[in-house]
Every structure is written in structure tokens, then in C-alpha cells.
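Priority: low. Protein: Molybdopterin synthase sulfur carrier subunit. Input follows.
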Amino acid sequence: MSGKPPSEHFRLLYFASAASFTRKSSDTFPAPLPISDLFSVLEKKYSGITKAVLDSCAVTVNLEYVDVEEESGKEKAGVVIKEGDEVAIIPPVSSG
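Result:
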């Protein structure tokens, strides 16, 4: 998983339970994509991922945390994932 995503795409990285659910460590998706649409795109590709993973995960775009729920509630477009961006789905880490 090295290099840049294909032209007009962004790379999505999966960690922990997200990687287990998708059986992948990464994917590429067409860009641009409003962050508020990300979960519905993933749910369409991986049925059940919203409840199993996304409802309790963190999301980063280019290593900066983004609040997807807050972005979804905005009337005007907020964060937009652009070509070449790196997005990560980071499930909560439990300690014990």
C-alpha cells in the first residue's frame, strides 16, 4: 500500500475492526466527496459497516480528526475529501 491513489481518487485506510470487517487495509474512492457522504458510500459497499464499525469510530483526513456527525448536520458543504487525500477509519481502542 504505497504510493498515491489513482487520479481523481482518495485513499481510505482501515484499522482494527474496520480492517477486519472489510478484509482490507485500504481502498480508493472517487474524489471529491463531502465527508458527510462517506459513511453512506461505505455502507453501500460494505453492508452493515455503519452499525458494526462506523457508529463508534474516529475519522481523519490527512491526519487531522474530523467530526463526521457534525459535518453531516451542516446546511452548507463542510469538509470535502479531495483527490490525493488520505482518510482513515479508526475504531476505538479498548484498554485493559
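The longest strand covers residues 9-14. The first helix runs from residue 17 to 22.
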